[in-house]
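Q: What would this chain look like folded?
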Amino acid sequence: MEYFCHHRDRPGSLPLRDRLLEEHWSYMDLFAAEMIARGPTFAPGSDTLTGSVHILDLPDAAAARAFAFDEPNYQAGVYRDVLLRRWRNLLGRTMWDFPGGSTDGDRYLVLGLGSDAAEPVDQDVPPGREELIAYGPLLSDDGTAWLGTAALVRAPDAKAARAVLTADRYADVEVHEWQFGGRSS
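A: My prediction, written as structure tokens:
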């Protein structure tokens, strides 16, 4: 089962995050085989970290919760909250398989959050697949209810990244600057 996890930083937690960097990476190393995508999010137009995205293929919801809440930064208080949802990998690949590579162009996390009354939307891969790094629906724990859509996309700017999701069909859409994560080579 695939899961989308977005840990959002607590304001002022960067010094703690920096001190825990090796612990964070060592923890992520334990899940290397399960990773579909990973990487930090940033405040618009800056190098200020705002969170971390991890998309993984794990055995069940209990394993996903353990991953999210046993993470060293979470345990130490770096994060203010966690969005953890089932997810379906509509591209069928990892970020490392993205033909655009890991450094070319600007990258974004686009989160479309559905409302209670919202009909599911964006259930298929949209045109422009060549710019999608990861794409799929956010689902309820049992995988039956659509709760939104999450995409990692290469785009010239945040507005173009936002356009990967259907306009006016979500309760809210968040666009975060994002980059490929992992240990430095």
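Helices lie at 14-19, 21-29, 61-70, 72-76, 158-162.
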